[in-house]
Amino acid sequence: MNTPATACWHCGAALPADPPVAQVAGSPRPVCCHGCRAAAQWIEGLGLADYYRLRDTPAERPVEHSTAQVWARPELARHAVRILADGRSEVCLLVEGLRCSACVWLIERGLGTLPGVASVQVNATAQRARVVFDAGRATLPQLLLALERLGYRPLPLDARALDDARRHESRAALKGLLVAGFGMMQAMMYATALYLGAFDGMDGATRDLFRWVGLLVATPVVFYAARPFFAGARRSLAARRLGMDVPVAIAIALIYAASMVETLRGGAEVYFDSVSMFVFFLLLGRHLEMRARHRAANLSDALARLAPACADRVRADGTLERVGAVELVPGDRVHVAEGGILPADGRLESERCSVDETLLTGESLPVTRQRGDTLVAGTLLVQGPARLLIERVGADTALAGIVALVTRAQTERPRLAQAGERAAAGFVARVLALAALTAIGWSLIDPSRAFTATLAVLVVSCPCAFALAVPAALTRALGVLAQRGVLVTRADAIEQLATATHAVFDKTGTLTSPELRLERIEAHDGLDREAALRLAVALARGSSHPAARAIALTLPDVALPAVDGLQVLAGAGVEGRVAGRRLRLGRADFALDGTRIPAGLEEATVLAGDGRLLASFQLSERLRPGTRDALDALTADGLAVEIASGDAPGRVAAIAATLGIAHWSARQRPADKLSRLTALREAGARVIAVGDGINDAPVLAGADVAVALASGAQLAQASSDIVLVGNRLDALAGARQLARQALAILRQNQRWSLLYNLTAVPFGALGFVPPWLAAIGMSLSSLVVVLNALRIGRQEHSPAGSPVAAVAGAGA
Amino acid sequence: MNILLAMIPLSILLLIGAGIAFFWAVDHDQFEDMDTPRLLPLEDLPDEQPPEEPPP
Fold first, then answer.
1. Which of B4, B11, B55 faces A2 most closely, judged by CB atoms?
2. Annotated active-site positions of A, please?
3. What is the pLDDT of residues A577-605, one digit of tens each?
4. Interchain contact, B8 vs A4, CB within 8 Å
5. A interface mutation test: which of B1, B5, B33 has the most A CBs within 10 A?
6. ipTM of the modeled complex
7. Mean pLDDT value across residues A548-563
8. What letter would DSSP give residue A639?
9. What does the pLDDT look like over A753-812, one tens digit per residue?
10. Which residues pair with A171 in a beta bridge?
11. Comparing C-alpha atoms, which of A298, A487, A329 is closest to residue A403?
């Protein structure tokens, strides 16, 4: 995607009045700041300007305050760098802002040009880069600086992350899948020859040859590819549960063992094709599920991003020293500059500061903290600087507490799907009992037929169709949803999404964009609105408060009155002199300096001159595009929608009114939201929670279905079941429609396989089913299940004309 | 049918060969990054080609 000329060529942000210009590929391109200009020029200088044609999302704005140098400290670098056997160093970096394939391309080439860098390997889905470098010619800070200049935020991960468990898991799964796939293809080929031979009269020696090669190819499938099922069964049995893995493992082992016995003694029939196919289809389902899971963020990444890597420790003589955040201990004093993130929990020692505590409360505006107040790690210092006496570090911080809350809520999550699994397990247990009965019955009547009949029961009722009924439908649904920008990280979420009755939305950042917008200006005291706005913008330019930024952005390019003695007062507003008059912009009680505040202005931003009211500004939040349609579609779909926000009641009410939502609650802390959710669930509701912030994480973890926005906090994504990649809420309505269709087809599959089994098993048990017919029946029943599952997501099957179908179509 | 005695072992040998190649590929990072390789052919465009204008 290339950005229009009104936006920064590099990062896509809005352009200021007089933008700096970068020369890229011979053409002048406007950019939003000097950091972006430097990044663009540097990319051009490396001959990598193709990046701008290859990328599909704008780049991240380059960081202003680099922390790269702190990694030169050996105490810190030791944690991140691993020395390889040949003396070179290897480091694994978490690269924030790495979003598309063009970024991968840019990073690999950008870092590759540095002297001393031996290899760069970037994984876009995990947002990681592994760099091998010669520590004599390149240093860690140099690598980090190079990435920062490209506009990314690199963070060296703990060296232990190099032996990534995730990487290991996906490789093992891929290998198992391949072995099962190859084995299945070959076993089926040999089986076809055997089945045809049964009609045409194959001679015994050829038949035995095919059986032996069948055994040969099925053996690695059972002993290598199917290991996860045996391991899972062993774990379930050790925990004294009967999971799905137990009957699956028993069925695989029995069919394989029986076929082997038949091969050895030249018996009636072998089923190596059935057992290989069974293993392959089940592994395929698990593999797709695992890939979806890996694409979502994990908790350790989330924590690594939230807390800063380094801190400025105050020495005894008052000077500052850059140290790693891991080196801090309680009792240390740290200095945090404006715009910095607090490295640990502590008590404020400076007079006052203003912090953004969205992390804990979800409050969208910064709050003021006084000397002695406790501040928590991960909060953003909006106005500072601040000096902090550290009280708690690492695992004791409030941030770590939230993570613990998430983990707990996750383990307490209701597992509706466990019921389905239990049903399947129960079914298989009954089939096994029936097979045992058949064996006993026939050995009393006619022992020579006992083995064949028992095997026929096992194969004809092979849990294939039954076991595939759920994974086939879920896998197809996961695939279709992923194409539409809805990543499902936990497969049961499909069922719960389809059957949910309530949806609870967070407000800030979920329904609304994070930025504020100037809604209404009221001028007083004979001033016209234009003049009032001009004065306010002149003052607002001096502050980084979201309200000030919203006002400043309304008039980017006009001549403004000059302001003398501009002063920002944390938590109150801005003060300055224009043409000799003392002007104040900010909260009403500050701007009007103690005089009576007119009604209706308590929450407004006020401009005053010498204590007299000049103008008032009503700021409002902007709705995300498509929010209204999405909520209408969900309501039309029968969901009860409500808002639970940490923000002030006025702002929540305004948004609720705009969206036509009757139920809302404000000033909710994470614990309040969680108890609201519990109350709903105890009343029998099944709840979808949608959020984006860290403060939403516990709520998300406690809901039946948790939906997070991809732009939101990593922690929120880590505790969610569904991630909306395009940040469009209307994808959710389409996803629900699809989930319902998937559930209907899933139930159809289950009914069909149950019907098939109920019909076929008695015939098998009575000895009427010749083994080749049992095998064909089993294959056909599985095929029907798989083909039926492929219908999920076809447009002609969703009711045409409904708004939901239209949304789903637009999202596809 | 004696040809089977040659063809079946041959098919199994091919299978083993394919399996070894695939295991090698998995272990040598060939499946780590499924996104970048599709961009690599675009990298070697001659420099004189005018850069594409962004859509308005």
1. B55
2. 506
3. 887 788 888 877 777 776 677 766 767 78
4. no
5. B33
6. 0.77
7. 74
8. P
9. 788 878 887 887 787 776 667 767 777 777 788 788 888 877 644 443 333 333 333 333
10. none
11. A298
Tokens of A209: 């040859």
pLDDT value of position A1: 42
Upstream peptide bond of A385 is cis (omega within 30 degrees of 0): yes
Q: Which one of 3.30.70.100, 1.10.760.10, 3.30.300.20, 3.30.70.1400 gives the CATH number of domain A68-163?
A: 3.30.70.100
Fold exhibited by the domain A308-396: 2.70.150
> What residues does each domain of chain A span?
68-163, 308-396, 419-484+745-801, 519-622
Mean pLDDT, rounded, for A234-247:
74
Contacts of A101 in chain B (CB under 8 A): 35-36, 38-39
Lowest mean pLDDT among A1-15, A45-59, A391-405: A1-15
CA-to-CA separations, A316 to A65, A321, A332, in angstroms, rounded: 25, 11, 10
| Per-residue pLDDT tens digits for A349-391 | 888 888 877 655 555 567 778 888 888 887 878 777 788 898 8
Residues 6+ apart with CB under 8 A from A695: A358, A359, A360, A361, A362, A402, A506, A646, A669, A670
Task: Give the three-state DSSP class for A186.
Answer: helix
Best of A23, A44, A51, A54 to substitute, by most chain B Cβ atoms within 10 angstroms, is A54
Q: A516-519, long-range: CB within 8 Å, 24+ apart, which pairs?
A: A516/A364, A516/A546, A516/A547, A516/A549, A516/A550, A516/A619, A516/A620, A516/A621, A516/A622, A517/A550, A517/A619, A517/A620, A517/A621, A517/A622, A518/A550, A518/A551, A518/A554, A518/A617, A518/A618, A518/A619, A519/A618, A519/A619, A519/A620
Q: What is the model's pLDDT at position A225?
A: 93
Question: Which residue's structure tokens are 């990543």?
Answer: A487
A residues 140-169 lying closer than 8 A (beta carbon) to B? 167
> Does A383 or B20 have the greater pLDDT score?
B20
> How far B43 CA lies from chain A's nearest CA (Å)?
7
pLDDT of residue A180: 93
Q: Which residue is listed with tokens 């063809």?
A: B7
Nearest by CB to B51, which of A27, A174, A213?
A: A27
Phi, psi (deg, nearest 5) at residue A9: -60, -30
B21 contacts in chain A (CB < 8 Å): none
Cα separation, A692 vs A529, in Å, equals: 36
Topology annotation, domain A519-622: Calcium-transporting ATPase, cytoplasmic domain N (3.40.1110)
Joined together, the tokens standing for residue A172 give 């093992």
Percent of chain B residues topping a pLDDT of 70:
54
Task: Please report which confidence band the pLDDT of residue B13 belongs to, taking 50, 70 and 90 as the band edges.
Answer: very high
| Residue pair A693/A358 in contact by the 8 Å Cβ criterion | yes
- Helix ranges (H only) for A100-202 are 101-112, 140-149, 165-200
Return the half-sphere exposure (C-beta side, CA atoms, 13 A cut-off) of residue A158: 10
Name residues 15-54 of chain B within 8 A of A (Cβ).
15, 18-19, 22-23, 26-27, 29, 31-33, 35-36, 38-40, 42-43, 45, 51-52, 54
- Read off the pLDDT band of A537 (50, 70, 90): confident
Lowest mean pLDDT among A400-409, A493-502, A565-574: A400-409
